[in-house]
C-alpha cells in the first residue's frame, strides 16, 4: 500500500484536525497505533509541524469525512505523482557501519552453501560489490584465511524471506535449464520451511561404507561338506564326556 509523503507530519495534522481513530491514522500513514497515540499525548513527534494532506493533494475532504463517520473505513491515498516510486529502493542496500565487517563472512557462507546464486543476487542480499564477491569466490581476498562462513540472516544483513526468494529463483532457473540435482542440492534450493518439512535421507556412516552388502554366513572353507562336522561341534555332550579308561578300577 502506498504511503503519504512526510508520513509522521501528516499523522500530526490528522490527529490535530480530525476525529479519525488512531488505527485509521496509523494505517494510512504506515505507523504503529501506539505511535499515533503517542503523537496525540505529545510524547512522540514533539515540535513536528503538521503536513496538510488535503492541501498537498494526498487526501480529499470527502475521504476524511467518510473515515470520521465509519471507524472501520480505511483512508485511500489520492494519486500523487510526487509519491510515485517513493518507496522503491534505489542503489545498493545500505549496510550499517557496525555490520559492514560481517559482510565477508556472509558472502563466504552464500558462496559455500548456495553456489547457484549469482554475484548480482548476493550483492543485493548483503549490500556488497561484485569484485569483493569474486575475490572471495577465488579465495584471493586479503583476509580469506580469517573469514568464517556465517549465515547472513543470523548477522542481520538480510531477511530469511529475501534469502528464500533468491534461492527459489535459482531453483527455477536450474530446473528450466534441465539440470539434475542431488538431494543435498535440492534442499539448498528450496525455502527454509520446505526444507525443514522434508524427510531426512538415510545415509550410511563413512566408517562402515562399503559393508552394506555384508551378511553373516558360514565359513566358506566348509563349503561342500555334509554338515556332520558342524553337528558334532554343536553337541554339548561331546565336550564333557571324556573317554573311559580301564585303569580307574585297578588298585596300586
Task: Report on this structure.
The chain is mainly alpha-helical and 252 residues long. The protein has two domains: 77 residues, no CATH class; 109 residues, no CATH class. The chain has 13 helices and no strands. The longest helix has 17 residues.
Largest sheet: none
Report the count of strand segments. 0
Beta-strand content estimate:
under 5%
Helix and strand pattern: HHHHHHHHHHHHH
Tally of DSSP helical segments: 13
Summarize the helices and strands and which ones pair or pack:
Blueprint (H helix, E strand, L loop, with lengths): L6 H11 L4 H8 L3 H9 L19 H9 L33 H11 L5 H8 L3 H8 L14 H4 L4 H17 L6 H6 L3 H6 L30 H7 L2 H4 L12
Helix pairs in contact: 1-2, 2-3, 5-7
Short description:
The chain has 13 helices and no strands.
Characteristics:
about 250 residues; mainly alpha; 13 helices; elongated
Amino acid at each position: 500500500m502506498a504511503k503519504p509523503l512526510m508520513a509522521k507530519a501528516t499523522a500530526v495534522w490528522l490527529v490535530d484536525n480530525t476525529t479519525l481513530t488512531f488505527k485509521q491514522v496509523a494505517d494510512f500513514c504506515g505507523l504503529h497505533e501506539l505511535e499515533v497515540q503517542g503523537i496525540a499525548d505529545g510524547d512522540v513527534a514533539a515540535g513536528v509541524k503538521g503536513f496538510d494532506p488535503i492541501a498537498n493533494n494526498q487526501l480529499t475532504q470527502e475521504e476524511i469525512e467518510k473515515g470520521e463517520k465509519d471507524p472501520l473505513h480505511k483512508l485511500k491515498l489520492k494519486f500523487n505523482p510526487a509519491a510515485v516510486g517513493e518507496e522503491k529502493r534505489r542503489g545498493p542496500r545500505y549496510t550499517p557501519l557496525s555490520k559492514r565487517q560481517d559482510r565477508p563472512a556472509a558472502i563466504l557462507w552464500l558462496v559455500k552453501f548456495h553456489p547457484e546464486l549469482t554475484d548480482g543476487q548476493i550483492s543485493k542480499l548483503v549490500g556488497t560489490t561484485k569484485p569483493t564477491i569474486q575475490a572471495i569466490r577465488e579465495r584471493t581476498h586479503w583476509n580469506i584465511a580469517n573469514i568464517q562462513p556465517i549465515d547472513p540472516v543470523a548477522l542481520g544483513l538480510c531477511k530469511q524471506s529475501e534469502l528464500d526468494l533468491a534461492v527459489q529463483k535459482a531453483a527455477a532457473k536450474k530446473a528450466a535449464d534441465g539440470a539434475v540435482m542431488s538431494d543435498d542440492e535440492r534442499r539448498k534450493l528450496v525455502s527454509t520451511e520446505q526444507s525443514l518439512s522434508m524427510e531426512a535421507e538415510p545415509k550410511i556412516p563413512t566408517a562402515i561404507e562399503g559393508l552394506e552388502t555384508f551378511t553373516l554366513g558360514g565359513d566358506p572353507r566348509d563349503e561342500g561338506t555334509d554338515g556332520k562336522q558342524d553337528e558334532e561341534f554343536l553337541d554339548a555332550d561331546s565336550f564333557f564326556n571324556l573317554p573311559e579308561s580301564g585303569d580307574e578300577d585297578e588298585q596300586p
